[in-house]
Amino acid sequence: MNVRVSESLNEEAERLDAADPLAHVRKRFVLPAGQIYMESTCLGPLTSSVSAAVREAVDVQWGRRLIDGWWEDGWWEAPARAGDKIGRLLGAAPGQVVVSDSTTVQLFNALVAASRLRPGRKVILSVTTQFPTARYITDSAARMLDLTVRRVPPAEIERYLRADGEAIGVLLHEPVDFRTGELYDLAGLTRAAHAAGCVTVWDLCHAAGIVPVDLDANDVDMAVGCTYKYLCGGPGSPAFIYVGGRHQNVFDQPLPGWNGHEYPFGMRDTYQGAPSIARARIGTPPIISMIALEAALDAYDAVDMRQVRQRSLSLTGFFMTCAEELLTGTAASVATPREPQRRAGHVAVCHGDAPKIVQELRDNGVAADHRPPDLMRFGLHPLYTTHREVYAAVCTLRDLVV
Ligand SMILES: Cc1ncc(COP(=O)(O)O)c(C=O)c1O
Ligand SMILES: Nc1c(O)cccc1C(=O)C[C@H](N)C(=O)O
Q: Mapping DSSP to helix (H, G, I), strand (E, B) and coil, where does residue 385 land?
């Protein structure tokens, strides 16, 4: 390795970390000793407030108060409380996000409910890059509703909306490509979909807590996302759903569960959805996970999404600078777009031996992941990843790919 290049990148990393206004937030995380953790694309790390909150939920709330926990400990309202905390990060005013079930289930709900808002329109428009669970749900929902799915490359969406907009009821899309980390124009695509009279459903799994999506300002109709990646809610933590206020009274819930009933304890024979975001609730929520999530979200206290985005861009940009200096001439190349407006929270690196290299990275203290056939993903979490870690990770990668 060219020693001068390496020294100046190291100095640059130190300078960027020293000037970082979010540096104090790192101590809110419990990070693995001796490992650079870059797998928030799959599972964010533990945050320091979670253990005590979960112990209290188990030993005191459940252990001593049992059923009274639903009221005395606020369990019943936990999905809405966590939803509002997440809503702040998504640019959603209170009362439009609720935490419930898994992303897969909520994708189904949102997609079916959105399709029901456009009876007569026979097409669901989505992208060829859809995450598998979204793909399976889309196909099944289309079969149930007698609709057709049209999948186009992300760059073709606007053209299809213009050409065939009257047939399209719903645009289902992910603002971040789960493989490459490419960021799409949620605002512009939502506008284009609305111009064609379509309803938008966004899967925010790789955007929540990392990219400002400004759901209210962008007039998004519905959105869903997981909470275990950048939001650090823990393994299997429940998902969230956003239903824009204007749709809540007409949201025709395809999984009408008693938790979403206007009078859940009325035990009525027929479903009458709550006239609020509560209608998006289904059955009894996993309270211990919900409490862990609520505590985890404290990591974002007093943190503004613009700062998060600025730091995220600094980290991904610095990764690319390091890659340009250190990986040029190797068989590894960056697959994530270079332009800031086209990248989100992770950087993907392409290499024919990606699975083997990811294992070797792990053996050398860098946790990244692999997505078939040939991508390595490095999730850079703006609340704890440092530029020095980025530099060290790219140096380790370079030693493995030459
Ligand atoms: C874009 C996207 N949608 C959905 C999911 C997952 O859905 P679930 O939380 O139901 O496993 C993931 C990741 O697992 C994802 O990346
Ligand atoms: N949800 C996951 C899990 O339960 C185990 C391992 C990974 C995941 C993931 O979230 C994968 C992720 N959505 C992806 O982008 O590949």
A: coil
